[in-house]
Amino acid sequence: MHLIIPKSYDPKLSIKETQEAIRYIRETFQDEFGKQLNLSRLTAPMFVEKSTGLNDNLNGVEKPVSFTMADMGDSQIEIVHSLAKWKRVALKKNGFQMHEGLYTNMNAIRKDEDLDNFHSAYVDQWDWEKIIAKDERTIDTLKSTVRTIFKVIKHMEHEVWYKFPQAVHHLPDEIHFITTQELEDMYPEMTPRERENAISKKLGCVFLMKIGGALKSGKRHDGRAPDYDDWELNGDIMFWYEPLQQAIEISSMGVRVDAASMQKQLKIAHAEDRLSLPYHKMIMNGELPYTIGGGIGQSRLCMLLLGKAHVGEVQTSIWPQAMIDQCEAANIHLL
Q1: Where is the Aminoacyl-transfer RNA synthetases class-II family profile domain (predicted)?
Q2: From CA 26, how far away is CA 32, in angstroms rounded?
Q3: Is beta strand 176-179 parallel, antiparallel or unpaired with respect to 205-209?
Q4: 237 in a domain, yes or no?
Q5: % of the chain beyond a pLDDT of 90
Q6: Gyration radius from the chain CA atoms
């Protein structure tokens, strides 16, 4: 358990007012976000069959919560880690056309998460996916989409300021782009997390690109599953978060793999056995559309916009009693 307690913390809003602000941010953001990216809202599953290969494997070490069902025989059912793969299949299944997309509420349980101010065992985010043309699988497409998302987040800052002026946390006016290799070159003696903090503090908001592959040092900046993001065309949106004096990641996103990039990445990850799974076969056979997509943390966005010290102030989850006690003593009221 790692907990940061800011000095003289003032939550600004009561618990009741915070709940009202959470509802307002979530409802307003998803409407504007869907409009700007041409996305329609779909309902999504909380669990999938393991045999489909649709679950997100994250870094490959996290174990999903799984169970069997009375009417499903011995089939293993898994609570989703994210909907990264499911969304691409849903676009095809539901007849979406070029430059159309979907967004949905994604709720996950990540029981192996290390709990701290930003991380909870309960993950709630907007998962989204949009069809693009093959020749749009480019850095320009990625950057343009990132700028649109940043614009919507800035729009929400103004909306929140109008309704809750005493509580809004002000954000930088610009997002900057940098690759993981450029970041390693800048700060070779730092750990990846220290680099993220350093560049976020320097620039205010960054989109850190090309996550998953090995750097010149031979190490990876961070892990990425090999079968949804193209590691050359992905990244994270990060803000410098003054209340906790560190970077906060709001979104992980990217252009999705085609057959060639997935095969290459599966080989690097020693996970070529996945090529026998239904989802992976569809990618290899060109049966799914080319897409760009990602996830935007709902609770983290509320935390960012309201200047909260702990994600537990904007979502209901389970926390160690020691963390609850320390937070309460510091005027941090976990829901």
Answers
A1: 23-320
A2: 10
A3: parallel
A4: yes
A5: 76
A6: 20
